[in-house]
Automatic annotation (TrEMBL):
Annotated EC: 2.7.9.2
Name of the top EC class for this enzyme: transferase
Signal peptide start and end residues: 1-23
Chain ranges of the Pyruvate phosphate dikinase AMP/ATP-binding domain: 623-945
Cofactor(s) this protein cannot do without: Mg(2+)
Substrates-to-products reaction catalysed: pyruvate + ATP + H2O = phosphoenolpyruvate + AMP + phosphate + 2 H(+)
GO MF, any single term: ATP binding
A Pfam family that the UniProt record links to this protein: PPDK_N
Pathway in which this enzyme or protein is active: Carbohydrate biosynthesis; gluconeogenesis
A biological-process GO annotation: gluconeogenesis
Protein name: Phosphoenolpyruvate synthase
Primary role: Catalyzes the phosphorylation of pyruvate to phosphoenolpyruvate.
Gene3D superfamilies registered for this protein in UniProt: ATP-grasp fold, A domain, ATP-grasp fold, B domain, Phosphohistidine domain
């Protein structure tokens, strides 16, 4: 009996183990292997075909659902591995819509992951011969198109009944209509791009034609493909020849004019409504035939109007019809735009305006964002404009292009990044989405305007031999020489080098020293990465996706890179460098370029936890770092805008470092100083700097691990508990706090050190706070922090961390204020960047950015494009919350309050700190229920050497912004 009982227990445990094993998350290599297996399988990801009856029963293929039950649907079932992958990784392969419930497919909890995966699957099938269904696409009966279409209609009837969905997710809903069957249409444009990509992948000489079809599709491309086929007929395989024939058929279908007269039938339910009448009027306008200019303009206007009026229509099926018309209108604009060739500058501005309306109507811009651009882009009726005014129009038009591309990335980047790990072909999805949109033609028109203005201002970029260089703009002045590294995908796993120049899709937030950077997604101008680049004179520029793709052929080559003070960019091969440019990189004594951390006044005798109110700016670099000292100063100046806080001074850190270090002869401090002594000895004996650095990094890893395990002194813990109770008003372990590293090597006159050391977010539990203190003490000895210090400081060994302890504020949005107009170089204006939630803008988020003008008014430099943000729960840690973009982050009241705050800071801070500092300030702040909270202030450090460089001045043309330019100027 006992044996039988033991057997049952063992069986239960074994089955539990099997269950857990099947739910264990699979590695990317395992998923990739599964995909390869599915490609070879005649059933692909499917197991078998069954009838699914309305009563829930499942029947064999030859045993259909009885009439009394109902017709049911027939389709495949997924293989067990496919089902398991969905459970373990939330990866859904080969989704059959008729097999899927609506709410799980919309997948709100996972940022609509399942819907987006369905779109990815469609894309991958088009570029990879069926992808996981390479053989399974011929598995008859696996998917029934009429059932998929019926499901699609029911799905949209359910989805579009919700006003909030259309408000918050307009772009995604509209994009999904291109992929989810619901009315018999196919996405012909994507099919054309996919077929041309497949051909160029198989036959490299087709690449130029593929590029043309992808970037500027025109009707005469059909003839070019036919001529290509004839010219290369001797070298083409039968398969390639057939593929070219299929492409020609698709291109003819794509370039076939849209039947405008049929549009009212598509929106039959809206007959008699304002939008229904507008559609009928457009469809019956005979003047549009053969007039691409009017056709593009009228279609763009109607596209814009449909979006604006969509929520007034409450019937889900009528909404679906309007969205389908919207897609057809985008197709009309896409096809007619290349046929409309402006003859003069006024017509070009006119075209850019309407294409801007089209991208807004298509969801690539939010309506409020277009409102911020419209005053510049709709003003084209004058006979002439100044060069300065036209430059501002170019900047706003360029913004529309960048924000449109960023909308696609914001919605799809996360799922693409996940899929790329096991299916590299996914990397082309975002680019395909952008190229298939009206944003493509907007970008080309803006490029034409940029070329014209560059010629007038002589502010032209010289970036290798790539096309459309007017989309490149400098962010930080400086110059560099080194190997060019072009990173097309994720930068997370890239090991950067300080002597190389990097082109990123998006820079890593923990970027180590580099020689120069250029980015597609610049993040924001006041992130820690951007501030470090600006501080250290690292040249930095923004460029387009296409610019990055064009630069890939130069990956690995040695180049010279410079960004001028006005933002024009030079990138040239080493063999084209002038004598003056070569002289910039002659070997210099490193000490001339490095600064020394002042330690003469540091006080290591202060061993008590301090009330933040008892420190001020005079204590910076003496008792504590500048974060605590300056926040203490702000508490005195703006008591209602600053939280209470505690300061753990340098002395407490040093006292702990004087304890005996385990497994070593002396103290932690002895270990550190001996490491630097040995490094100096090694350098003096001729050992290479790289080898010495590797030795130091190994030693610092030992020290860092030891500090994290270091025992905290009892008297220090007692003081901390007392401070929590008396100053923060709660017991240690009951109030969430931030632990902010605050070293003596931050905010120096010539070195910012922004973001190099650790901040612990929203920690509550007593043990986590105590462990966190040691983690913060250890953070200056990380590789990244050490490398920045080594590169720019003469005495990097003399770093002392203090810690600022402040209670968490679960702000609605937060960010950075710079009391200077960075983008314009204006000292009286302000630059702000804000993101939703806590920790906004400092880590390179795609933040909402403004230039706030001193005399009143402001300019939106960029809208927020982050799908997730940090919330700070009272239980500690962070929680990811989802953001949408239909509303702005900062409101008018916030902007007015920031302007007033900046005025007070400029006036009062130098006076009350008895400082002769005349420069700008870098302020971290946030809003909770529209109340402003201040978290940090420090000098905004710029690299005067880069700003004042004779060479950079020489490549910066003098521009007469008052020069008048006739809008009738031919182009």
């Amino acid at each position: 009996m006992k044996l039988k009982f033991t057997f049952h227990i063992s069986l239960v445990l074994f089955l539990l183990f099997l269950s857990q094993a099947s739910a264990q998350k699979k590695e990317s290599a395992q998923i990739s292997s599964l995909i390869q297996n599915f490609k070879k399988d005649i059933r692909g990801p499917y197991k078998d075909i069954r009838w699914f009856c309305t009563d829930g029963s499942i029947r064999a293929p030859k045993d259909p659902c009885p009439d009394e039950i109902g017709p049911g649907v027939q389709h495949a079932r997924y293989k067990d591995e496919v089902v398991a992958l969905g459970k373990s990784n939330h990866v859904y392969l080969g989704q059959i819509l008729a097999y899927t419930d609506q709410e799980p497919f919309w997948d709100v909890t996972n940022d609509h992951s399942r819907l987006k995966q369905y779109q990815l699957d469609k894309y991958l099938r088009s570029v990879d011969n069926g992808w996981i269904n390479q053989r399974g696409q011929f598995y008859r009966g696996a998917i029934q198109s009429e059932d998929e279409e019926a499901w699609g209609i029911e799905f949209y009837k359910w989805l579009l009944s919700d006003d909030e969905v259309l408000k918050n997710e307009f772009f995604l809903v509209r994009q999904s209509l291109k992929d989810i069957p619901h009315n018999g249409d196919d996405n012909v444009a994507q099919k054309m791009r996919s077929e041309s990509k497949v051909i160029s992948d198989l036959y490299e000489p087709f690449m130029d034609l593929r590029t043309k079809i992808h970037s500027q599709p025109e009707d005469d491309d059909i003839q070019k493909v036919l001529q290509f086929k004839q010219k290369h007929s001797a070298k083409l395989t039968t398969d390639l020849s057939n593929k070219l024939n299929e492409l020609v058929v698709t291109m003819r279908e794509f370039h076939k004019p849209v039947d405008i007269s049929a549009l009212p039938k598509r929106a039959s339910l809206t007959k008699g409504t304002p939008l229904g009448k507008a559609i009928e009027s457009f469809a019956s306008d005979k003047e549009l035939e053969g007039n691409p200019k009017q056709l593009m303009e009228q279609a763009s206007q109607l596209l814009f109007d449909i979006r604006n009026g969509l929520l007034e229509e409450k019937r889900p099926m009528a909404r679906l019809q309007l969205l389908d018309v919207s897609l057809k209108l985008e197709e009309i604009v896409f096809k007619s735009s290349p046929d409309y060739q402006p003859e003069n500058l006024k017509e070009l501005l006119h075209k850019i305006c309407y294409l801007g309306m089209a991208v807004t109507g298509s969801g690539y811009l939010e309506q409020w964002e277009w409102g911020q651009l419209a005053s510049n882009l709709t003003n084209y009726e004058a006979d002439e404009r100044t060069l300065g005014e036209l430059t501002e129009v170019l900047n706003r038009a360029r913004s529309a292009v960048e924000w449109s591309a960023a909308m696609v990335k914001a919605n799809y980047d996360a799922i693409v990044k996940e899929y790329v790990a096991f299916e590299p072909l996914t990397a082309g999805f975002v680019d395909d989405k952008i190229r298939g949109s009206v944003a493509l033609h907007l970008g080309q028109s803006v490029g034409e305007l940029g070329n014209l203005i560059s010629a007038e201002s002589q502010l032209a970029n010289k970036v290798m031999d790539i096309q459309n260089q007017s989309t490149i703009r400098g962010l930080n002045p400086g110059y560099a020489f080194g190997e060019l590294v072009v990173v097309g995908g994720s930068s997370d796993d890239i090991e950067v080098s300080s002597d190389k120049i990097y082109v990123f899709q998006r820079p890593p937030s923990d970027l180590k020293p580099v020689a120069g950077i250029a980015t597609v997604a610049e993040g924001n101008m006041v992130s820690h990465v951007q501030l470090l680049a600006r501080n250290l004179g690292i040249p930095n520029a923004a460029l387009s996706d296409q610019n990055l793709q064009d630069l890939k052929k130069y990956d690995g080559s040695k180049v010279f890179y410079a960004v001028s003070n006005k933002g024009n960019v030079i990138l040239k091969p080493e063999n084209q460098m002038s004598k003056e440019e070569l002289a910039l990189f002659e070997k210099k004594e490193r000490k001339e370029e490095r600064i020394e951390v002042p330690i003469a006044q540091i006080r290591l005798d202060e061993n008590k936890v301090l009330n933040m109110q008892d420190v001020d700016a005079d204590d910076s670099g003496k008792l504590c770092g500048p974060k605590a000292a300056n926040l203490g100063q702000l508490k005195k100046m703006f008591p209602e805008k600053v939280v209470e806080g505690l300061v753990i001074p340098f002395g407490i850190f040093r006292t702990h470092m004087d304890q005996k270090m385990p497994d070593q002869e002396g103290s932690y401090w002895n270990f550190l100083t001996k490491m630097f002594e040995e490094a100096n000895r090694m350098l003096a004996s001729g050992i290479s700097e790289k080898e010495v650095e590797n030795y130091q990094l190994r030693q610092l890893e030992i020290l860092r691990d030891a500090i994290k395990k270091m025992p905290l002194r009892d008297d220090f813990i007692d003081q901390l508990e007392t401070g929590f109770k008396n100053v923060l008003g709660s017991e240690l372990g009951s109030v969430p706090v931030f632990l902010r590293s605050d070293t003596n090597m931050e905010d120096l006159k010539d070195f910012t050190g922004a973001g190099l050391n650790l901040t612990i977010f929203n920690s509550v539990e007593r043990e986590k706070i105590l462990e966190g203190i040691k983690d913060v003490w250890a953070s200056p000895y990380t590789e990244r922090s050490f490398k920045w210090r080594q590169k720019y400081l003469l005495n990097p060994e003399n770093v002392f961390p203090s810690i600022l302890v402040i209670p968490s504020v679960d702000v609605d949005y937060s960010g950075v204020l710079i009391t200077k107009g960075i983008s314009m170089g204006t000292d009286k204006d302000l630059t702000v960047a804000f993101s939703r939630g806590a920790g906004g803008a400092v880590d390179g988020q795609a933040a909402e950015q403004y230039l706030i003008k001193d005399e009143g008014g402001y300019v939106l430099l960029a809208p927020a494009r982050e799908r997730f943000y940090n919330g700070l729960p009272k239980t500690g840690g962070t929680e990811k919350k989802k953001a949408t973009f239909q509303d702005r982050v900062l409101n008018e009241r916030n902007i007015d309050e920031i302007r007033e705050l900046a005025h007070q800071i400029r006036e009062r801070v130098p006076k009350e700190t008895h400082s002769d500092y005349q420069g700008a300030y870098d302020v971290e702040l946030g809003f909770k229920d529209n109340k402003l909270w201040l978290f940090q202030i420090r000098p905004f450090v710029e690299n005067k050497k880069a700003l004042g460089s004779t060479y950079l001045e020489s490549i910066t043309p003098k521009i007469d912004l008052t020069k008048q330019i006739s809008l009738s100027k031919k182009i």
